[in-house]
Structures are given as C-alpha cells and as structure tokens.
Design a protein that fits this description.
2 copies of one chain form a homodimer. Chain A is of the alpha+beta class and about 220 residues long. Chain A contains 8 helices and 11 strands. In chain A, helix 3 crosses helix 4 and helix 5 packs across helix 8. The relative contact order of chain A is 0.16. Chains A and B meet through strand 5, helix 2, helix 3, helix 4 and helix 6 of A and strand 5, helix 2, helix 3, helix 4 and helix 6 of B. Chain B binds a DNA duplex (30 and 30 nucleotides) through helix 7.
DNA sequence: CGACAAATTGATGGCTGTCAAGACGTGTGG
DNA sequence: CCACACGTCTTGACAGCCATCAATTTGTCG
C-alpha cells in the first residue's frame, strides 16, 4: 500500500463493525451518515411497496458497497438488511465529498461503482420483463453462483446462500409457491439444488446462457478501500 | 454563467449535432467515444435479449444524459436510439476523465446522475416484479407525464409522446395486445388517453398513487453543462 | 392502388398466482 | 419431557391474468 493511500485511510478513519442478522443497515427514504463495505456475511437490498409487497433488488455479498445512493443523493432509494451476522467496514458520509475533492481518481471509481450497479439493475429489469419464470430462476441462481465463485465462496461445488425461498421469490417477481416448485424441478433434473443454505449449480450450458454472464462480472468488484 | 464554467465549456469544446429518427446513438456492448446531452427530441434506452425480445429501460427526454456508462465502464450496457429527430450536445469521452480531475464537484454531479438512473431502474424493477399490468401502466404513464410537466412539454393538458405502443409494452414487460386493451380501458374511463402521439393524463389520485412519484423527480434533472 | 406499419378487437390457452393443507425443525413454556 | 407456537418448506387443486393467435381497420408512403 502506497504512503498516499495509507494517509487516505487514516484521514477518513475507517472503522470496523459487527452487526447481527436482521439488522437494518440502511432504510429507504432516509439519509445515512454512514456508508459500508461488506467484509463478511450476507444481506438483502430491497424496496417496499405500499401494497405490502417487497422487491428484492440484489443479494448483498462480501465486497459490496452500501449506501452510495444516500451518499450522493439526499436519501436511500432502497433498504439494506443483514440476513446473517455481518462484518462491515464503516465510514462517514463526509468522506465521500472529500474523496471527490482530494482524490479525483477515487471519485471516478465511485461513479464506476454506480454505473455497475445500474447495469445489474438494468439486466434484472430485462429478465423480469422478458423472461419466463424458469429462465429467470436459472439466470438468478447462475449469477449468484458466479459471484460466489469469484469471491472464493464455493467449496466442493457448493456455496453458502443463507436466504429463504421468499427472498428469492421477491427478487424474481414470482410467488413463493411457484418458486418452490421450480426449484424442485431444477433439483430433480440435477441442474441446481439449494437446500440447507447451500447452493449447488451444475455447470450446464443451458443455465449459463440463461444467466447471460458477461465476463466483466466474474471478477470481484474492486473494494473501495 | 461564471467565468469558471465558461472556460470549462470552451476547454471541452462542446458541439451540437442533429440526428434523424431511428439513429442508433449508442450500442449495447460497444464503447463510445462520445457522450450526449439531449437538447431536443425523444428516444429509447433498451436492452436486447438473444431470444429476440427487447426491454425498454426508459424513454429518453430532453435533458437526459446519454453514455455515462460507456464513459465510466468499458462499454454500454444498453442501447439508445432516437425515436424522433433529435438535437444532442456532443462531447468526447476523454472529457469525463479531465472533468473528474479538474472539477471534482462536477465529478460528483456525475456520480449523482448515475445514482439517479440507478434509482429509476430500481423503481421500475419493483413495478415489473410486484405490480399487476394495469398498475404498471398507470405508473408508467403518470411518470412520463410528470417528467413532461417538469420539462414544460405539457400544453392544454397534453404532451407529445412520439412512441408506439410496442415501445411502451416492451417497457412494461407486457404484450402489445394487452397493453393496447389496457390503454383502451384508461381512455374509456377518462383516466388517460394516448393517441396520435399525444398523451393526456387526468390528475387522478389513483393514478398518482400508482405512480409513486417522489417529489425529487418532479424537478428536471440538472443538465450537466 | 398496393405495400406496409400501427392500432384494434375477439377467441383461446397456458403460465403462474392464490388458496389450502401438511410436513419438518426449532425454540419456548408448562 | 412434552405440548405448543412459529417459521420454513412442500405439494395439490383451482382460478385468473395475461400471452398468443388471428383477423380487421386505419393511416401513410411510394
């Protein structure tokens, strides 16, 4: 690490914190004085609708950066909740402004991050709008599995995926019941299985195609700090 | 305009250009040496799937900034096409880098823009995933109408909306036929009408609720330059 | 006038949501 | 130790929203 980056970290006084499963890290509609980088554990990004339903925007995995929206805009446009115990790297919102001023190239990284998030959402939007249920599921499982591989979370062909079926259903825009039945099909056909919090995905060409994995995103996102 | 901003514009040598309806401004998967700000006319952002279907991500209206993704990432993650003749403000990609270096506060604006786009996509994702067809349509019409109002495009309660029903259907994740039938219902019930490229939306509380308009986005996006 | 894109409308079917019930595991209190 | 509540997963039956197919109309352009 260069002396420059070292001083940078000290200046912004990065802090580490543990949060337990179920903790609401960021809330839709609220500002946040803190931003986070996930070091450990998993969570959910989601939006709540007034009819009571919920749209899961993404699974939060280690390395993810949380709160960029609140840092740049006035408020968060979605909530983030821990699904397992998590370890996060905390820093204050003011750091963002100083970051842009003193380290323009890092500011560029932030815009890059926002663009990447935008890409993921656009991809998901196309999936929800144009693909039938089974393909959406295949794409979703394949994509999270690819992220797991990139992060080194896969052992013996399985990666931990500590969510419940309702979380996945809310992310795919499907009902819980239908999601369950599709998962059974994938299990019976030996394509993918997800039980006891462990996901296994057979390296099937069909699934990979459904997932539309662009090479860019097999690499982990570069951590901000 | 401050002397500072003036010199800024001169340095990046902003150029104006006219493109005709149907022109592909940006292409998914390709890099772009140019970025655009829309001065006039309308277009579409969309993603193409290999099964031949298309997901419209957003309608492009005057004031929109195009190509941020290509500017920050290696390539565009969606395409942009002109639906009418357009006038755009052109500048080169290198300007982005220099922008971050020499005008950090402008770099911040770009991150802000990316975050706003991300918000819109997240909102649309929730709509596609969780709302039935009629609510999606109501929300979509109401939202574009609100943008039109903010831009001063509304006269006598109508705004120009030079798209075809297929465009709207591809944006809502609905079939063309169903979209057509829903539009008829809205027309017959006097809630909203869209024909001959003119959109009229009755100021109905129900529709407004469906649209979930947050106050932030009744204001026009601040143009970059 | 003919070709074409776009809008419109009806009939039909299927994908997927909803309802309902049961199985299984876990934690809690009696 | 057992009964009970609770969350999650599972499975079947049924209904309905919406996609698909097909045909007609309208307007535009060459």
């Amino acid at each position: 690490m260069s002396p420059d980056e070292l001083s940078f970290m000290q200046r912004f006084k990065v802090d580490e914190r543990r949060v337990s499963a179920g903790t609401r890290l960021l809330t839709e509609g609220e500002a946040s004085a803190e931003l986070y980088t996930v070091l450990n554990g998993m969570g959910l990004r989601f939006k709540s609708l007034e009819n009571g339903s919920r749209q899961v925007l993404a699974f939060v995995l280690p390395g993810d950066f949380l709160g960029l929206q609140a840092g740049v805009m006035a408020q968060m446009m979605h909530s983030v909740e821990a699904r397992t115990d998590m370890t996060v790297c905390v820093f204050r919102r003011e750091a963002l402004w100083q970051l842009f001023a003193s380290h323009p190239e890092r500011g560029f990284d932030l815009a890059w991050l926002a663009a990447v998030e935008e890409h993921f959402l656009g991809d998901s939007l196309a999936a929800l709008g144009q693909m039938p249920a089974m393909e959406r599921l295949g794409r979703g499982l394949c994509r999270v599995f690819a992220r797991g591989e990139a992060l080194g979370l896969v052992r013996d062909g399985r990666m931990p995926l500590p969510f419940i079926q309702q979380d996945l259903a809310d992310g795919l825009g499907l009902s819980l019941v239908h999601t369950n039945k599709l998962l059974r099909q994938l299990r019976q056909r030996g394509i993918a299985s997800w039980s006891d919090g462990l996901l296994h995905v057979q390296d099937t060409p069909g699934l990979a195609e459904n997932a539309q994995l662009s090479p860019d995103f097999r690499e982990p996102l570069r951590p901000l700090i």
